[in-house]
Write a structure and sequence with these properties.
The chain is built from five helices and no strands. It is an all-alpha fold and 104 residues long. It is extended and about 60 Å long.
Length: 104
C-alpha cells in the first residue's frame, strides 16, 4: 500500500476539496513552524508520533525535516526509543483491562 507515487494524488484531494485542503495545509504548516518549541524539536515530536502511528509517509517526511532542522541520527534514534516506550507502556497499561481483578 505504501507507495510514494500515491502522494501525487494529494493534488486531486486539493482539487476535490479545495477549501478543506487549504485549511489542512495551513494548519499542517503552522503546527511545525517556529514557536515556543523550536522546529527541530517539533519535527522530532512528529517523527515519534509517526513511528507510533506507523505512517511511512510521515516518518519519511518528518525525518528529513528533522535533519534539515539540525537533528542528528542520535536524536532521531532517541525519539524512536521514546515512541517505542510509549507504545509499550500503552500495551502494559491496557493489559490491566484484561485482568479480572482477582487477588492472588
Amino acid at each position: 500500500m505504501y507507495n510514494k507515487a500515491n502522494l501525487s494524488k494529494l493534488k486531486e484531494m486539493n482539487r476535490l476539496a479545495p477549501k478543506l485542503m487549504e485549511t489542512f495545509w495551513a494548519f499542517d504548516k503552522a503546527a511545525v513552524a517556529e514557536g515556543v518549541i523550536p522546529v527541530k524539536y517539533k519535527e522530532l515530536i512528529a517523527v515519534a508520533v509517526a513511528l507510533t502511528t506507523q505512517c511511512p509517509y510521515c516518518i519519511d517526511i518528518h525525518s528529513g525535516n528533522a535533519r534539515r532542522a539540525g537533528a542528528t541520527d542520535v536524536e532521531l534514534a532517541e525519539a524512536g526509543m521514546v515512541a517505542a516506550s510509549l507504545r509499550a507502556g500503552a500495551a502494559v497499561t491496557h493489559a490491566a483491562h484484561a485482568l479480572l481483578g482477582e487477588s492472588a
